[in-house]
Write a structure and sequence with these properties.
The protein has helices at about 40-45, 70-75, 90-100, 110-120, 135-145, 165-180, 195, 215-225, 240-250, 270-280, 295-305, and strands at about 1-10, 15-25, 30-35, 55-60, 65, 75-80, 155, 185-190, 200-205, 210-215, 230-235, 250-255, 260-265, 285-290. The chain is α/β, with parallel strands linked by helices. The protein has two domains: about 1-215, P-loop containing nucleotide triphosphate hydrolases (Rossmann fold); about 230-295, ACT domain (Alpha-Beta Plaits), CATH 3.30.70. It is elongated and about 80 Å long. The protein binds adenosine-5'-diphosphate (ADP) and magnesium ion. Adenosine-5'-diphosphate binds near residues 39 and 40.
């Protein structure tokens, strides 16, 4: 449904995007993750036909963004990272305005506006002026607008930035619902946990290069191969336990909370079992010794090198 082939973009001699290759199937929910300046917006604007690539091409719903931009726009709903709302318009007027812009026949406006307001949980705000809406509601109204032409593909650029925790949760639920409806989603974020629970695929981009991409499970497996995230908690002699652990395993990212420790190690299972054995024998009274699932945040740290531009 979305294909990028050697997509590159240069601004002068600055390479904002280098040979990006990506394939998303219909129904995929793709998390496009990377720090600020990584090239997310550039990629998204090229997919949304607002910018031409310097080289390479991309296809949305089978249409080339460089050769058939009009056909791309018909299948695509795009929500930019920054958007303006016209003041002095009520929510329904704002949506009808865009329904007209999308050339939806006039007799369908009312039903359609009610439908997208319902979906974005804004029915009660139908008569409100857009400037009186909270940031989260404005965001949802903008999303409602992008749904008017019933696009198969939705591309949202950092939709959760600037939202408070509750608004983020509401947005996430809405995205999950859209995904259930069969839309193909590409959602960018510089914050990982935001995307982790509704995406089936993720891509990690840094300094214009896609460093890893694929199904969440396989990325998780790939990154956690030979590395473990351990959680250990003892009831006795926490400080000594810490020294023992650090002496027994090669430890990275050690963090401590009371009598509990979280750490990363490449030590094998035998070594881990030896450590647990020793903790028991030496009277530390361990109550917790478990492998944590590597999360996306951890992978992000491992895959990216912290290059900033
Ligand atoms: N219009 C532009 N002119 C020059 N440089 C740009 C322009 N747009 C983006 N860039 C640069 O390209 C890089 C990628 O930017 P962007 O795609 O906005 O990243 P992201 O959305 O991941 O934060 C950055 O280094 C940015 O400064
Ligand atoms: Mg951006």
């Amino acid at each position: 449904m979305i294909v990028c082939q050697n997509l590159s973009k240069e601004y002068g001699d600055h390479k904002a995007l280098q040979d990006l290759n990506l394939t998303l199937e219909a129904g995929d929910a793709f998390g496009f993750i990377g720090p600020n300046g990584a090239g997310k917006t550039t990629t998204i604007r090229i997919l949304a036909t607002l910018q031409e690539p310097s080289s390479g091409d991309a296809w949305v719903g089978g249409h080339s963004v460089t050769n058939e931009p009009d056909a791309v726009r018909e299948v695509l709903g795009y929500m930019p990272d920054q958007f303006g709302l016209y003041e002095g318009m009520r929510s329904w007027e704002y949506l009808e305005f865009y329904a007209a812009a999308y050339r939806v026949p006039k007799k369908r406006w009312k039903g359609l506006v009610d439908e997208v307001l319902e979906l974005t949980d804004l029915t009660v705000k139908k008569q409100s002026f857009v400037e009186t809406l909270s940031t989260g509601m404005r965001q949802r109204l903008c999303l409602a607008k992008t749904l008017l032409h019933d696009p198969k593909v939705l591309i949202l650029d950092e939709p959760a930035s600037g939202l408070d925790p509750r608004a983020r949760i509401e947005l996430k639920l809405l995205l999950k619902e859209l995904s259930r409806m069969g839309k193909t989603l590409l959602v960018s974020s510089h914050i990982l946990p935001e995307l982790a629970d509704f995406c089936n695929k993720v891509g990690i981009i840094e300094a214009g290069r896609l460093l890893a991409s694929g199904p969440v499970d396989s990325i998780l497996a790939q990154a956690s191969r030979n590395r473990f995230r351990l959680r250990i908690r003892v009831l006795q002699k926490a400080e000594e336990a810490r020294q023992l652990i650090e002496g027994a395993l090669e430890v990275e990212d050690f963090s401590e909370e009371g009598s509990g420790f979280t750490l990363s190690t490449s030590a094998d299972l035998e070594k881990q079992a030896d450590l647990l054995d020793k903790l028991v024998r030496d009277g530390f009274r361990p109550v917790e010794f478990s492998q944590l699932k590597t999360d996306l945040e951890q992978i992000f740290l491992e895959v990216t090198q912290g290059i900033t531009q």
